[in-house]
Amino acid sequence: MRRVVLTVAALSLGALLGPAPSAATAATPAAAAGSAPAATTAAAGSAATAGRSVSTATAERSASAATAATRGSRAVKAPTGQEADGAARQAAWFARRLRADPVHVSDQIPFAHPRSAASRFAAQAARTGVPTYVLVVPFQTALDARELLGAVHRKVDRKGLYVVVDGTSGDQLEAAAYGVSVPAEDAARAAGWEMPSDATALDVFTRFVDVVRQSGARAAARASEAEERRLVDEKRPEPFYTTRGDRSVSSGVAGALAGGVPLLVLAVGCTVCRRHRGHGRGFLGYGVPLVCAIGAAVLVHSGAVAFAQGEKAVPSARPTAHDLQLRADRVAEGLRRAPVYQDPESPAALDGRHLTAVRERLSALEVPARLVVLPALADEDESGGDADLFLQRLHETLGEDGLYILAGGDGFDGFDVTVANYGVKLAAKELDDYGDWIRYGPEDSDEEPALGRRITALARHVEDVPQGPPGRPEDAGRVDEPADTSLPPVDSGAYRPAAGGAAGLVLAGWGALAARRRIREGTGLTASLPRIPAAWAVPEAGGRDAPARPRRRWLRRTAGRELNELAAAFAAAEGGLDKAARGHVWACLDAAVLLLDRQGDGRIDADADRGDLAAALALVRAGRAALGGSGRQAVRRRLCSVNPLHGTYEPAGRAAGCAACRAAAAGPDRARGLLLPGTDGAPVPYRESPGPLGLAATSEVRHLIDHVRERFHVSDVSG
């Protein structure tokens, strides 16, 4: 949008001034046409053609077209020479500044680049290797940089590299080499196309210096490549700086990683230990995943801090009080010499007879009146673009009462006239009622701005204002301090809430998985029971001895023997059992036979694996324990959660193991859980094995029986 405004403004200016044979008239439309990148105005046109002559011819045709477009509405006046006089006055001002110091930073942009920061531009200018003269000016002044450079060079009359930089944003950079061999125009093009939108004027100038130090061929190739990337490939450079909003997002992401990754590592590590080391208390136990989690936390935090250190905050100008006072001092000094002061950094808006008429008219007033013409009134100046605030500062600096009149503009839409009455006895309401034509200028864009006629009309209005109390404008306040663009530490702001949220999610997921596992284990506290170094754990009365890692041969032999014993005992005691006990024992026998003798030949199958053998043995021992009690007690009994081969136990509160395992848990020794082959053949806790004891996910005997029957599609026939 800014480019469109520039183009329209430049064409409008050409239409108002009319055709002229000078380079100034041709340069304005050329600047607008070539201002798409943040680079040179006429330089962009010259790079697109064979040389500067083609660019100038194109610009002249554009100016002629713009002039012709306005002839239908009004006659075009011949040039009077006033415009040339204004440009010469501007060039002479800058020439005097550059002869005193080769780097001049305007005092009108303290909140973009204050005068006190001129040394930074000087340091970069020294790298060019040739005499370099730099003007850092407001955006409006940089629009006509090509014409300005030529005029300034003629006034300075020294060989060297001349550069004009838009100090407000760096959107405009114009360079010309006079008597030195450097690729000025190609370097300006490359800097404009290569720089991101958040680059400052100093950034653009630094990149310009980097390119201008290269050979002409290399600079031209670099400019063409950058232009092609932007226009053809539509690839915009990555931003230079990180905003506070971006840092807040980065802090949130870093916090989420710092809070979630270590706990995730710990959860995965504990799961791996649980699968491969019994209940997670093998060699080093949970120490390895804990160390890994701590290491992950350190790595994530260190990585986030290192990444944040590579980010740069948006530069924030911190002008000194002296920087903020410079322009007011300059204007006040000028007003002490004459009642009309026009900014010398811009072409004079009042020249010749217009200036003379305004001076005479203001001097003829019975009250003191002073006029200040500032074409560059913008957010980056000491008043923040506020006319009342500027006039208040000017009055404080000058220290004299009177009518202070400001014709302030933004370089595009002419001038807005503001009047402030300090101590003059005029009626405030009537004084302020000087009309929109004087205040804002003509509504018709084709009408001549006629600032001189507007000020003359204002003087006539002042003569008609009745007397009143001495004027005292309301306090205009102070300009707002620049927004804080410094970046807070990455571990501040959203870091802790995000870390807590991520940690909470991981813990919730971990807890859900643990709850699911505990549900599968019934009321089991298997994982919390300690381990004993002995190979056997002594079961309670009616139970059996069992190793923690039984071999297949032992399981086959023991299961076959105890199955026969149970069958014989059941046959002998069947008449003395109640119906519930008899049904329960029969169900245990039936399920055990299904696991051991699928062939039905009265022998244990040769291919029976350790999971089936262990489940069958657990069922046989559960049936043997049920022979000595009532049916209700038999159904309530559970398999030992530490090692189901120990037999069953009577549930009591939250106890999860047989009496021997509970005794071991309370003592210095530790109970050893049953390990069975996992899916990969490695020993794992039986709950995680693919056998019936793992898949049944319960310590209740009846549930294990139901699981076995469902596996073999057998109905309950215990009757």
UniProtKB/TrEMBL annotation:
Low complexity compositional bias, start-end: 61-75
Keyword entries, A-Z: Membrane, Signal, Transmembrane, Transmembrane helix
TM region positions: 252-272, 284-308
Location of region: Disordered: 61-84, 462-486
Plastid listed as a keyword: no
Secretion signal span: 1-26
Bias (Basic and acidic residues) ranges: 472-481
UniProt name for this protein: TPM domain-containing protein
Species the sequence originates in: Streptomyces reniochalinae
Domain of life (superkingdom): Bacteria
